[in-house]
Amino acid sequence: MPVKMLPLLFAAPSWPYRLSSVPVDCRGLAICLATAWTFLLASSQSIAEAPAVDNSTTDQTSPEKFFVERVAPLLREHCFECHSHESGDSSGNLMLDSLAGMLVGGSRGASIVPSQPDQSLLLRAVLYDDNELQMPPSEKLDDEAIATFRTWLADGAAMPEALRGDLSGTGTAGSVDSRTLAVQAHWAYQPPRRWSLTDASAPSNESACNSANAIDAIIESNLASAGLSLSPPADRTTLLRRLSYDLTGLPPTQAETEQFLSDPRDDQAVTSELIDRLIASPSFGERCARFWRDVSRYADNKGYVFQEDREYPGAHQYRTWLIEAFNQDLPYDVFVTRQLAADLLVPAVAADAEATPPEKPPAPKLAVPTSVALAATIDNSIASNSDLPALGFLTLGRRFLNNRHDIIDDRLDVVSRGLMGMTLACARCHDHKYDPLTQADYYAMFGVFLNTDEPGGEPWPHRLVDAAEPRQSFILIRGSPGRHGDKVPRRFVSLLSPDEKPFN
Questions:
Q1: Do you find a cis peptide bond into 489, omega within 30 degrees of 0?
Q2: Contact indicator for 368, 503 with CB cutoff of 8 Å
Q3: I need a labelling partner for 264 at 20 to 30 A (CA). Which of 147, 201, 208, 485 fits?
Q4: CB contact at 8 A, 161 and 178
């Protein structure tokens, strides 16, 4: 843009503006700016003429003020005696003197579900509709108190931030910053619970009660309440095609189709047998391993590494191990642990390809964690040498011109995203902007991988072992290897294991 047009950007134009005075090559911009000024002037005039808004009513009925004046007194009077840090009691492992305590809940689950009062155990307890859940136990609250709880929950269970860590006002619930409190309250960071179907979730309509199983009954009941119904059952041809593609990734053969369609037994028996047969097929493991290889960023080469050989000669061993793991129905905890620390589970690694482990190997010594932090809590069956290729989960990644820091970053990324659902690699240069992860968390885990080496020259080419000498991990300022910050002990992510001691 010509310099002589700059005043047009920063000064209000004189009206009427003469386009003839503007250079030809800038008249389009002048027209756009003139139009914009017209709208701005019209908007400012409308705002000036609009009546002022009185915020006094909004302040008086704010959800935070409603909680302080109406809800908090009810909690102190009727709940804190049995469910607070001040009383030293936690009936049912439930604490109601902090927002985190309410959201984490006790043995029955979260006590409140913001914006969903009918799904909140707190409201169900005070309503006395459930014979097994009635609080306070002495007597039912009056209708006004129950309505207060319902209104508060419907408005999102809002409360002043200063009270979220300690509603009692005594300081006994501990001082918790708002970020930590939000993390503790989030469902994704709460310990998993095993759920069971209860009478409260049982369907009430007649059609749902005739469903094949309890889960289908609940689904059908909810559909019926919305005026919907299940789609009609698929015919045998469609069912065979769907199951075959879903479980093996392959279409059914002509012989399989003819056998399935001509079977005189009822559909449920024939379908159950078909599912068992497809899962027992070797193609089932190949199908499932294909998805896990996406998680583990499987590749047959290292990427660009100057003049080195880019190929991973033993990559196929990891792929074969995955297929066998799925076909053998390896439990998930064993499946994950062997991909992280198979070397710790093998008593002794043979020096040549001909060696085989004894039939009953002695228990391994788990003195120092090696591959990852999770190795400290291994409680697993002893692995054999044939499980060592499972470490390809960690090692079959890009080599980034053999930059050690980038290689470790890639391994942290596959562990955190693939197994934890968190993006730990985003905390390499600064605290994470969204996940509750700090730079200290990143470099604590970084230190674990920093203390591993790949021995090479083995029939299992992608194995990790302990480094010969311990290596100290530092927080790298802005992620720069040349700018060391504080020392960081090796450990797992603090959010998920706050009481765990460092590995050093």
A1: no
A2: yes
A3: 208
A4: yes
Query: In angstroms, rounded to a whole number, what is the distance separating the alpha carbons of residues 274 and 241?
Result: 11
3-state SS assignment for residue 130: strand
**121 and 111 in contact (C-beta within 8 Å)?**
yes
Nearest Cα residue to 303 out of 407, 455, 392, 405 = 407
- What DSSP state is assigned to residue 109? B
- For 124, what's the count of Cα atoms within 13 Å in the CB-facing half-sphere? 16
Strands (DSSP E) found in 204-329: none
Least Cα distance to 391 among 309, 452, 307 occurs for 452
Cα separations (Å) of 209 from 8, 197, 206, 221, 233?
74, 14, 5, 8, 17
Cis peptide bond prior to 136, omega within 30° of 0:
yes
Residue for token pair 């083995």:
458
Least confident of 102-106, 151-155, 171-175: 171-175
- The residues with which 474 forms a beta bridge, in sequence order, are 487
Please report where in the chains the tokens 């689950």 appear, as a residue. 109
Q: Which long-range contacts (CB under 8 A, 24 or more apart) does 59-63 make?
A: 63/152, 63/155, 63/156, 63/158, 63/159
- Contact status, residue 492 vs residue 441, Cβ threshold 8 Å: no
Those residues with Cβ within 8 angstroms of residue 339's Cβ, 6 or more apart along the chain or in another chain: 296, 390, 391, 392, 393, 394
Q: What is the dihedral of CA 5, 9, 14, 15, to 10 degrees?
A: 100
Banded model confidence at residue 127, pLDDT cuts 50, 70, 90: very high
CB 103 within 8 A of CB 174: no
Query: Which H or E element spans position 47?
Result: helix 27-49
How far apart CA 186 and CA 318 sit, in angstroms, is 36
Q: What is the DSSP string of 399-440?
A: -GGG-HHHHHHHHHHHHIIIIIS--GGGGSSS--SSSS--HH
Tokens of 74: 């009810």
Q: Which residues pair with 109 in a beta bridge?
A: 106
Q: How far is it, in rounded angstroms, from Cα 436 to Cα 416?
A: 13
Please state whether the peptide bond connecting residue 16 to the residue before it is cis, i.e. omega within 30 degrees of 0: yes
How much is the pTM?
Answer: 0.64
Sign of dihedral through CA atoms 81, 84, 86, 88? positive
Q: One-letter amino acid identity for 375?
A: A
The candidate with the shortest Cα–Cα distance to 104, out of 210, 229, 191, is 191
C-alpha to C-alpha distance for 156 and 263, rounded to whole angstroms: 56
Q: Would the pLDDT of 440 be above 50? A: yes
Looking up tokens 């400012």 gives 44
Structure confidence by residue, pLDDT tens digits, 459-496: 666 778 888 898 999 999 999 988 999 999 999 988 77
